[in-house]
Design goal:
Layout: E1 8-11, E2 17-20, H1 26-30, E3 38-44, E4 66-72, H2 77-87, E5 104-106, E6 114-116, E7 121-127, E8 135-141, E9 144-150, H3 162-174, E10 180-184, H4 203-213, E11 217-221, H5 229-245, E12 251-254
Parallel strand pairs: 2-3, 3-4, 4-5, 9-10, 10-11, 11-12
Antiparallel strand pairs: 1-2, 6-7, 7-8, 8-9
Helix pairs in contact: 4-5
The structure holds zinc ion (2 copies).
């Protein structure tokens, strides 16, 4: 499946790119011909290192004709700037934040839907259950929702908490009829008891959420780092059985390095 951490790019047919999270996969995006130069909008769900560790290695930061604008759903520009200053500073990294002032720009998300890429995409956000907070993004164009991204989110189906149940119902509304949902699938149901409060879901919980909100395709994402490819294949089979029992036509795939999902708007 590959060993990279979270990074997705949403690309328009025009070649413009919106980046979701800056995990280690970001490096490969930066070395592709079409991706040097221009402005890159990078939306982080949160500042955990597995969602940031590709940023120092993103080639456009060092290009003459590029601008990289980074925002984070869970904190304002000041706190995000402080975190990036920490990562981008010797001895952790040889190039400092201030040396990148020409290309790197830090901005705020105010929680309201915002448009990107010449107003062609609208991005709405809601908050996940995750230690320290994390965002969930839903991207739409004029035709409606296209893609939703919830990489770190504890659905906590087993928690008998009314507040959590209300949040889960509101989340299903936020994600309703989304053609592609990328969701946290770190655990399987049997592992949840030992990991309550850790901020992640089981693959089965992600599948049940995707079915409840009418997703077209579910991408199981953020696999536990100890999983082998065979383990992940077995988890997909287990979740496919849930889909089949519901007689749903929802597609189910595991997130893998380099996966491309085509969405017709
Ligand atoms: Zn996290
Ligand atoms: Zn994570």
């Amino acid at each position: 499946m590959g060993g990279h951490t979270s990074c997705w790019s949403v690309e328009l047919p025009t070649g413009e790119t919106l980046v979701l999270d800056a995990g280690s996969g970001l490096r490969a995006l930066g070395t592709r011909g079409r991706s040097t130069g221009g402005t890159f909008e990078v939306l982080l769900t949160h500042r955990h290192l597995d969602h940031l560790d590709g940023l120092p290695h993103f080639a456009p930061l060092y290009a003459n004709d590029a601008r990289v604008r980074v925002r984070c759903a869970s904190v304002g520009a000041g706190d995000l700037r402080a975190s990036l200053r920490t990562i981008l500073s010797p001895p952790l990294f040889p190039v400092s934040f201030d040396q990148l002032a020409r290309t790197l720009d830090v901005a705020s998300c105010d929680g309201r839907p915002a448009t990107y890429l010449d107003h062609q995409l609208e991005v709405a956000q809601t908050m996940a259950q995750h230690p320290g907070g994390a965002g969930i993004y839903r991207i739409a164009d004029a035709s409606g929702p296209l893609f939703a991204y919830a990489p770190d989110n504890e659905l906590a189906e087993r928690a008998g908490d009314a507040q959590v149940a209300t949040w889960r119902r509101e989340l299903a509304v936020f994600l309703r009829d989304v053609p592609v949902l990328v969701h946290d699938a770190t655990y399987v149901d049997d592992e949840l008891v030992q990991h309550a409060g850790w901020g992640h879901s089981s693959a089965e919980e992600a599948t049940r959420l995707a079915l409840a909100c009418g997703a077209g395709t579910l991408v199981l994402h953020h696999h536990h780092p100890d999983r082998t490819d065979d383990d992940v294949a077995r988890i997909v089979e287990r979740c496919q059985a849930i889909v089949d029992r519901e007689r749903s036509s929802m597609k189910l795939v595991a997130g893998v390095e380099g996966l491309t999902v085509r969405v017709e708007g």
